[in-house]
């Protein structure tokens, strides 16, 4: 199968028609027409087999996830997604794999009307790089550097599910046997949180005029909030007991394990954000309107770094605060 | 070394200040301000170690080439480059490698005032994906689908040098011994054409109002002209004797070998383009103004596909017409 056919096959499965795409795949580059008056928001994330996803991940799930993690970055900026590019490196020209990948990618792209406008298919170890483009009004782009002392800290959804899903898939996990005997629908739900994350795009757009800073939880809550703290020049305190847990997490893990998953597990793709006092009352109502729950989990304080506190306000030390690919 | 530090290190070496970059590296995404009234041109290319470049390639050359091959796509569209993103997958966090890579990348980025606005550094087999953004006036973007019967066909610069450079580096090459004894400056020049290609950005811009179709020569002249022929619904005839050769190519290869390199060798990153009769007289003058030579090599005809003709107008068959990563 020729390189061109692979891209074409993926493109056909992702056939979203957009008037702002003047010329899509098939030339040296795409020709796009940015809407006037908006800022262009661009992000890229790479997934490497065996590093960012288990080797056993299905092509469908990989297609979904590779787009989802990128859309999540746009969500964290409050941007509306429009265009994507895909650089797919494959060990061989496996049509079944490519069709599965295209299916998962297209399913999520269709939900958000994202057009695939460019790509490159190459031979090599399985690696997926996606680039996404979105737009947002210049005055209301969400950044990491706007948190102020006195702001409340929130997170959408529940935390730790994706990390628990990864443990369900890990044959070396000490608790694997217990997890293996959990109800199949509970296991499957946790695994789906790992492999089919939901980018919080509507929540990000709703937060544009409410949040002072925002980030998506990809490396782990404490690690990611650490970026807000560092960029904003503030400290953040998180109340361990307030961290939201799914019923699946509550059913399968005891409190210390659960906390480690919630505070340090990555791949949740929820939004963590700071909110000035004047807007705190609006957050849950405005997010509920777009079908997204949110929990108040802490506050922005003077100082630096992120501290996890127990019910008495005493700092808790976790072994693993987040994920660093080169640590 | 942490993931963030790697990106930061590359970013610091590529510190191009642009007013249209509202927020660069360091948040979930870049915030960019497109200029009004222009179309956005976006392209991506991936380079995989051992597939797209020899394993022995220096980090500096790889940094240069990974940006050059992408800028070449913008040149083929007649676009002016503005922003780049870099997804770099590395076996380990080798600071020396990253500094070398950043140096080569930054050297070319500075020449064209391209700002590095985003990226992702991951661990895995050495793979480089670059995404470039440029702008062009909507009415004058160069495409592959505009060639008309009766147009002349041109190519910039000389052909086959990069493929000859690759043979100089290949220990299995039958002619390696002769090439090894060639004058060092000749070998080095050919190798530099492979590892440090020049994206023809000024030439592409100069061709906006002259060319009817354009492509960059990455896979090999005949293969790439085949894309123009297919997209334009025409045939193309190329006169083998007209193909431009460098003095290095003339000195080191006999005529049949030279023709194979010129017509089928990839990685030249010259521009091949069609020109309506009314503009033919302007091409060489307008390109000379931007310091780029061009040669008339053939014509657009009725039919389909690309034919290479000898001095008598008889078609010549080549063993290898171009490069296809999955062929």
TrEMBL record, chains A, B:
<feature type="binding site">
    <location>
        <begin position="119"/>
        <end position="120"/>
    </location>
    <ligand>
        <name>ATP</name>
    </ligand>
</feature>
<feature type="binding site">
    <location>
        <position position="267"/>
    </location>
    <ligand>
        <name>substrate</name>
    </ligand>
</feature>
<feature type="binding site">
    <location>
        <position position="73"/>
    </location>
    <ligand>
        <name>Mg(2+) 2</name>
    </ligand>
</feature>
<dbReference type="InterPro" id="IPR036921">
    <property type="entry name" value="PurM-like_N_sf"/>
</dbReference>
<protein>
    <recommendedName>
        <fullName>Thiamine-monophosphate kinase</fullName>
        <ecNumber>2.7.4.16</ecNumber>
    </recommendedName>
</protein>
<keyword id="KW-0808">Transferase</keyword>
<keyword id="KW-0418">Kinase</keyword>
<dbReference type="Pfam" id="PF00586">
    <property type="entry name" value="AIRS"/>
</dbReference>
<feature type="binding site">
    <location>
        <position position="45"/>
    </location>
    <ligand>
        <name>Mg(2+) 2</name>
    </ligand>
</feature>
<keyword id="KW-0460">Magnesium</keyword>
<dbReference type="InterPro" id="IPR016188">
    <property type="entry name" value="PurM-like_N"/>
</dbReference>
<dbReference type="InterPro" id="IPR036676">
    <property type="entry name" value="PurM-like_C_sf"/>
</dbReference>
<dbReference type="GO" id="GO:0016301">
    <property type="term" value="F:kinase activity"/>
</dbReference>
<feature type="binding site">
    <location>
        <position position="216"/>
    </location>
    <ligand>
        <name>Mg(2+) 3</name>
    </ligand>
</feature>
<feature type="binding site">
    <location>
        <position position="52"/>
    </location>
    <ligand>
        <name>substrate</name>
    </ligand>
</feature>
<comment type="function">
    <text>Catalyzes the ATP-dependent phosphorylation of thiamine-monophosphate (TMP) to form thiamine-pyrophosphate (TPP), the active form of vitamin B1.</text>
</comment>
<keyword id="KW-0067">ATP-binding</keyword>
<feature type="binding site">
    <location>
        <position position="120"/>
    </location>
    <ligand>
        <name>Mg(2+) 1</name>
    </ligand>
</feature>
<keyword id="KW-0479">Metal-binding</keyword>
<keyword id="KW-0547">Nucleotide-binding</keyword>
<feature type="binding site">
    <location>
        <position position="73"/>
    </location>
    <ligand>
        <name>Mg(2+) 4</name>
    </ligand>
</feature>
<feature type="binding site">
    <location>
        <position position="73"/>
    </location>
    <ligand>
        <name>Mg(2+) 3</name>
    </ligand>
</feature>
<dbReference type="InterPro" id="IPR006283">
    <property type="entry name" value="ThiL-like"/>
</dbReference>
<keyword id="KW-0784">Thiamine biosynthesis</keyword>
<feature type="binding site">
    <location>
        <position position="44"/>
    </location>
    <ligand>
        <name>Mg(2+) 1</name>
    </ligand>
</feature>
<feature type="binding site">
    <location>
        <position position="28"/>
    </location>
    <ligand>
        <name>Mg(2+) 3</name>
    </ligand>
</feature>
<feature type="domain" description="PurM-like N-terminal">
    <location>
        <begin position="26"/>
        <end position="135"/>
    </location>
</feature>
<feature type="binding site">
    <location>
        <position position="218"/>
    </location>
    <ligand>
        <name>ATP</name>
    </ligand>
</feature>
<comment type="similarity">
    <text>Belongs to the thiamine-monophosphate kinase family.</text>
</comment>
<feature type="binding site">
    <location>
        <position position="323"/>
    </location>
    <ligand>
        <name>substrate</name>
    </ligand>
</feature>
<dbReference type="Pfam" id="PF02769">
    <property type="entry name" value="AIRS_C"/>
</dbReference>
<feature type="binding site">
    <location>
        <position position="144"/>
    </location>
    <ligand>
        <name>ATP</name>
    </ligand>
</feature>
<dbReference type="InterPro" id="IPR010918">
    <property type="entry name" value="PurM-like_C_dom"/>
</dbReference>
<feature type="binding site">
    <location>
        <position position="43"/>
    </location>
    <ligand>
        <name>Mg(2+) 4</name>
    </ligand>
</feature>
<feature type="binding site">
    <location>
        <position position="219"/>
    </location>
    <ligand>
        <name>Mg(2+) 5</name>
    </ligand>
</feature>
<feature type="binding site">
    <location>
        <position position="45"/>
    </location>
    <ligand>
        <name>Mg(2+) 1</name>
    </ligand>
</feature>
<comment type="pathway">
    <text>Cofactor biosynthesis; thiamine diphosphate biosynthesis; thiamine diphosphate from thiamine phosphate: step 1/1.</text>
</comment>
<feature type="domain" description="PurM-like C-terminal">
    <location>
        <begin position="149"/>
        <end position="308"/>
    </location>
</feature>
<feature type="binding site">
    <location>
        <position position="28"/>
    </location>
    <ligand>
        <name>Mg(2+) 4</name>
    </ligand>
</feature>
């Amino acid at each position: 199968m020729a390189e061109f056919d692979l891209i074409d096959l993926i493109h056909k499965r992702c056939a979203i028609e957009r008037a702002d795409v003047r010329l899509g795949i098939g030339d040296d580059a795409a020709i796009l027409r940015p809407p006037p008056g908006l800022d262009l928001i661009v992000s890229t994330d790479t997934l490497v087999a065996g590093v960012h996803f288990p080797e056993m991940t299905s092509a469908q799930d990989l297609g979904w996830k590779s787009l989802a993690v990128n859309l999540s970055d746009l969500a964290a900026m409050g941007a509306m997604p429009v265009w994507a590019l895909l650089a797919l490196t494959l060990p061989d020209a496996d049509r079944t794999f490519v069709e599965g990948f295209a299916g998962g990618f297209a399913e999520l792209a269709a939900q958000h009307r994202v057009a695939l406008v460019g790509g490159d298919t190459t031979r090599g170890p399985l690696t997926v790089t996606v680039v996404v483009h979105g737009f947002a009004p210049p005055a209301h782009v969400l950044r990491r550097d706007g948190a102020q002392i006195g702001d409340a800290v929130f997170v959408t959804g529940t935390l730790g599910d994706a990390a628990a899903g990864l443990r369900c898939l890990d044959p070396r996990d000490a608790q694997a046997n217990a997890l293996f005997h959990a109800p199949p629908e509970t296991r499957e739900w946790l695994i789906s949180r790992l492999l089919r994350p939901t980018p919080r795009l509507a929540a990000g757009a709703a937060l544009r005029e409410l949040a002072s800073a925002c980030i998506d939880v990809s490396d782990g809550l404490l690690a990611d909030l650490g970026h807000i703290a560092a960029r904003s020049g503030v400290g953040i305190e998180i109340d361990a007991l307030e961290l939201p847990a799914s019923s699946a997490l509550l059913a399968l893990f005891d409190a210390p394990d659960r906390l480690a998953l919630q505070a340090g597990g990555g791949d949740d793709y929820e939004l963590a954000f700071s909110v000035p006092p004047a807007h705190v009352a609006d957050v849950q109502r405005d997010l509920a309107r777009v079908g997204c729950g949110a929990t108040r989990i802490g506050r922005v304080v003077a100082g630096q770094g992120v501290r996890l506190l127990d019910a008495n306000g005493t700092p808790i030390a976790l072994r693993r605060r987040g994920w660093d690919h080169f640590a």
